[in-house]
Amino acid sequence: MRILVTGGAGFLGSHLCERLLSERDEIICLDNFFTGLKENVRSLLGHYNFEVFRHDIIAPIDLEVERIYNLACPASPVHYQFDPVRTIQANVLGVTHMLELAKRTRARILQASTSEVYGDPKIHPQTEAYWGNVNPVGVRSCYDEGKRVAETLMFDYHRQHGVQIKVARIFNTYGPRMALNDGRVVSNFIIQALTNQDMTVYGDGSQTRSFCYVDDLVEGLVRLCESEDLTGPVNLGNPAEFTILELAETIIRMTGSRSSIVHNPLPADDPLQRNPDISLARSKLGWEPQVPLEQGLSKTISYFEKRLSARRTLA
Ligand code: NAD
Ligand code: UDP
User: Fold this and answer.
1) Going from the N-terminus, what domains does the chain have, and what CATH number goes with each?
2) For a tag site, which of 4, 20, 44, 93 has the least CB within 10 Å?
3) Dihedral sign, Cα of residue 9, residue 11, residue 15, residue 16
């Protein structure tokens, strides 16, 4: 199969490309390299079934493909708030272009949606039936509302034009190849711990998140895309829930760091609690995460140790 992966040079996209290539598919990786890196796909570049090119999905594109995994969108709050207008354009114009491509080629399209569509949730854990509690005019709205519109577009193209769609609501996922400047909590804490800098817990650290290791997430995306009777939306994430303070303490212990925990102000609209109900993915896809937090953190810590030591060698 010829598969288009947009955002394929990013954190999740590069792991997905690797996984799909191992199944002998032909992969077209498309990226504007805003947060993605050529380095993330360097090991795939010589592969005869792998192509990569620079393109921004805000502009239309024509290709012949059978599957589209649409991951192109900055995912960390620091990056998606850098140019909020472009973020929402990626989710409205960009998703429309991908859906037009799916419509013309009759490709099946999977949209990387997010737990952010639930906003600061009033029910816990979050099931797919929950409509969310989202601020439409806040600093996170370019992303949260953008991803909500993207879901609407997916379902409208499905109902109106018969496009085969799959919508994955991805909860916090971490692992090797998160960018050094990503700004999300797992990479921030690991880098701070490895460099013995203060560990920046925002607020009192009692807010919770559920962290999924990247290999588990990629398995869920592929199972969803290849399932025959499920359009979604489907929650994909690890239901084990931790406070941010617990995460900080775990990373300090695992790295033997001399970092101290400091408390910075909580960003606007920061959700207090987040935990996926994954019953649907369990029953329809036979999927659930296999990698416990400390095992995934250990692999991620090793990755950042190598990245930081390569950076020191260059300096
Ligand atoms: P990432 O920033 O590492 O990857 C995004 C990739 O998309 C980058 O390579 C970036 O350069 C590219 N990109 C951004 N805008 C683009 C555009 N307009 N045209 C072409 N390429 C563009 O982030 P990630 O964590 O790998 O996230 C991938 C997708 O998964 C995103 O859509 C994100 O919203 C979604 N997601 C991720 C998480 C998570 O925890 N990692 C959670 C929920 C949803
Ligand atoms: N956070 C933190 N310190 C950091 C980065 C993030 O305490 O250096 C907190 C953030 O306020 C949020 C949680 O960690 O409550 C997860 O943040 P992240 O940016 O990773 O993802 P989000 O789930 O908010 O999109």
Assistant:
1) 2-171+214-236 (3.40.50.720)
2) 93
3) negative
